[in-house]
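Journal club prep — side note

Before the paper discussion, L.F. wants everyone to see what a predicted structure for a comparable chain looks like in token form. Sequence:
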Amino acid sequence: MPIIRANTGVITQINVFTVPEGGQQALIELLREAAMSCRGIPGWMSASLHRSLDGTRVVNYAQARDQAAMRHVFEHLQANGFLERNKTLGLAHPGLYEVALTVE
């Protein structure tokens, strides 16, 4: 389950993909496969996939317990070819974040 609270140490990777027309679902399916393969990695927490209403973007919001766990997730994804396969379906704009503030 995603955690969106400040001062938890949780690292969030937000990756905005630009996809060609009609390309959202194929990327979502690949990202789902990648997320399912990460479920057993210690420290992996969650992945949430979002599709833009205009059909041009997919956002992957993935969380790990800390930076070391996120590094293990990236290593797993790289070793299993997911990062290369992502490139064939969309242009990625990734970044690592921590929650600075939430207002409820």
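L.F.'s comment for the group: The mean pLDDT is 96. Keep this in mind when we get to the figures.
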